Fold CSD domain-containing protein.
Amino acid sequence: MHFSAIAGNGFGTLHDGEVVAYEIDGITTNQPQARNVHALGVQSRHTA
């Protein structure tokens, strides 16, 4: 994903394991892309 799709000010970054919400754009052109991406938090990984 290109950093410009990440919502917010400045350079957007995401980290492994982050849960995100996003909108899909470009479906009519057969090239769907994420846009307006917002990080919701980090998903915890529990191991037994």
In short: Residues 3-42 form one domain. The chain has a mean pLDDT of 72. The two ends are 32 Å apart (CA to CA).
